[in-house]
C-alpha cells in the first residue's frame, strides 16, 4: 500500500511546477490523497501552485480596509483552511470515535463544510438580540504558554478583538437594565484564524443539555398569546419552567442577585461557562475554565435604580460603554483561567467539570491571569459591526479544543445554523466584521451573498488542475488537529451522568457566599418575580426549591408572597462559602465613576471649579448639575459648563453626589406641582427636583457630600446628617476624598437594612 501511495505522491509532484515539493512538507499528506486520475484525454499544462494569498481585508474601527487583494478567496495559497482561516489537516474524513464511527457532533469542520454546501444554490437574534459592542486589543501575558499552543496566547502577542455585550431575553428595542443574564462575546482575530470566546456574565447555565434550550427560551420569552411581558422573567411561564426543572435554579439565583442588573458592561465579570481542553506544544492537555475580570470592579444597580433607568435612559449600558471609550477611559478586563488536570473522570475535587450548572470556587482553583483586554474604539456602524457580527463557540484555534459537555455540543451546532437565517446564507464569514485576519484558502463556493470572485477551476480536493493547491497543514504547520481524546465504547442513551442530579448544593454555596445585604436584595428579587406570577402552584413549587437552598431565603420569600414556607426534604449540605462570589466587602477602583456636583449661581463657584478639577484628576467623571443648561458664572472669566440641568438629571446616572449650593425653587420649576409629592417635604424653598435627586441617591445607598453652606439640603430632604455615608465640610477637597473612599465600596452598604 505504501508503494502505491508513494507512486501517487510522486505523480502529483511531477505534475506540479514550482520550487520544491510542497507535499513533502506536509506530514501524512500522501496518506490522505487517493490515487491520482489517469492522464487527462487532452493533456495540458497544469496550473502552477499559487503562493499563500494575503489575508482578506480586515475591517478597522475607523472603517478603512487596511489592504489585501479584492479576490481574496480563491483556492490558492499553500494550505487548505476553514472559513475562519484555521489550517486543516484533513478534509476527507469526518471526526469519528474510531475509524468505524460513530461520527461526532463536535466535528465543526464537517458541519461547516456540509452546511456551506447545502446552501450553495442560493432577520433579530433569537436570543441576545439587544447588544452593544466595541473594538479593542488583547495583549497576552504569555502565562498560558505552558498549557496551550494558541499563538495569540504567546507572550506579548497583541490581537485585535471585537466584543459584544447583550441582554438575552428582550428584543432589539428593549431596555438595557432589565433583570437578565448578560452576554459577553469576544472575537479574537488571531494569526491562526478567528477564535470566539462566547460567554455570559454568569458562570453557570440554566440547563445541562442543549436539547432543552428551546424549552427554557420559550418559557422566558413573552407569552405567545399577547406577547407580553417584554424582556422580563417575572411571569408564569418562566417560573413554571424553573420550578419544574430545578437544574435551572443555580443560574436563576445568580440573576436574582445583583448579577442580573449590572451597573455597567464595564463592571461585569465574564465566563465561558463550559470546561475547555487546552493542548500545549508537547501535546499535553489541561482542562480549563475562562474568566474575564473587569478592572473597574464588579458592580450592580439596585432594583429601583434599574427600573428608573429603563424609563429614563433605556440605552444606559450602551451609552455608558460608548461614552467611556470616547472619553478615552478604555474599559479593561483581565482574562484568566482556572486549570484542572485532564483526568478520565473530568472532575475536580468532586465537581463534575462537564456539568455547566456547576462552578469551581476560585478558592479551590485560583484564576490565573493570562492577558489583558482593552476596548478602545467604538463601532462606526451599528448594523455592519454590532448586528452582523456572528459568534460561534466552534471558531477555535490550535491549542483550544472542546470537551464532551452536552450543552457545548449543541451550541457547536446552533451558532452556525442560526446565522443562516439571520445573515441570509452561509457566507457570513465574508462580512467585514467577521473576516479573519489570517489567510483564508477555503473551498466553500457560491451561495447567497458570495462576495469573492474566485479564480481557478478546481475548488475540490484532491485536484491536479489547480496544481493540487491548497495543501493540508499538519499540526506543526499550524493545522487544527483535534485532540485524539479517547471515547469509551458505551450504549447509546438519552441520559445525564448521576452527578448532574445535584441541583441544590451549589445554589446554596452561592447563597451562603453573599453578604447579608446581597441576600436581602436576592430575597426581594425572588419575591417580586414570583409576586408577578398568577398561578399559586408555580409559586409553591418554587418555594419548595428555595427550601432546598436555605430556610431563611425560603421563609422570607414565602412571607412576601403570603404563602406558607415549606421545609427542606433533606438535611442541607454543609458547604464552604466562596468569598470571591460576593461583590460586597472589597475595595474597588473608582476610576471612571460618575460624580454629580449640584450647584446654582449662588454657590461658591470657585469651590465648584476646584471640585470639578479634582474629580477629573482622580480619573472620574464630574457632571455639573445646574438649574438650567448653559453655564454658571457666565460673566466670569472662567464659566462652568452645566452638563446636566434639573430637567435632564436623574440620580441613577451618578455614583455619588456632592451639593455645592442649595438651588432655590425657580419661578417656573414645577410651579404647578405639589412639591411634597415629589420630594417628601413640605418645604418648597429648594427645587423639588434636587430633593428628588438626593432622596433617591440616599435610598440607593450612594455616598452623598455637601459643602457646609449647602448641608441644609439634606435636612430639607429628610436625610439625617448622622447616617453612614453623609459627608459635610468646608473643605471641598476633604469632602471629595471621603466621598471617593466610600465610592471604593461602590455603595454605603450599611444604609441598607440587612438581617440574613
Ligand atoms: Fe447562546 N446562542 N446558546 N449561550 N449565546 C446565541 O447565536 C445557544 C449559551 C451566548 O453577541 C445564538 O448568533 C444554545 C451559553 C451569547 O452575537 C444562538 C445554547 C452561553 C450570545 C445561541 C446556548 C451563551 C449567544 C443567537 C444552549 C454562555 C450572543 C444568535 C445549548 C457561555 C452572541 C446567535 C452575540 C447567542 C444558541 C447557551 C452565550 C441561537 C443552543 C451557555 C453571548 O445560536
From TrEMBL:
Polar residues bias spans: 75-85
Coiled coil (residue ranges): none
GO molecular function annotations of the record: catalase activity; heme binding; metal ion binding
Cofactor(s) required for function per UniProt: heme
Keyword Nucleotide-binding listed: no
Residue ranges crossing the lipid bilayer per the database entry: none
Keywords: Heme, Hydrogen peroxide, Iron, Metal-binding, Oxidoreductase, Peroxidase
Function: Decomposes hydrogen peroxide into water and oxygen; serves to protect cells from the toxic effects of hydrogen peroxide.
Name used for this protein in its record: Catalase
Originating organism: Thermobifida halotolerans
